[in-house]
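Appendix B. Chain record.
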Amino acid sequence: MADTGADLHPSLTGKPGCKVKLTRKDGSLLAEARGHSRIIIVFKLVLRIAVRVLLPLALLAVLMIAVVAGGVFFYTSDLPDTQSMNSFAPVAPTTIVDTNICGEKQS
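Structure tokens predicted for this chain:
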């Protein structure tokens, strides 16, 4: 079957040495190819679309992880060291029997 190039997009017609025609006027996904399999071309198109979708999602995930890690770092930076707080711990368990706290009787 001879290809005259009449059904191709105008930007691809008239170019010498053009072996792969990627766009057609009818907008079909399967492209006319000389020496290439249509499955490979469709696979490349699907892969290109997947990269365009997954790359921003991956970058967004990395950004979210960095924001959460930064928040945890800044939140824990002002907390006291637990080893230095050990000196305030009682030696034995203590029971408080007075229920009068701050002038109020607790029930």
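Further analysis of this model is presented in Appendix C.
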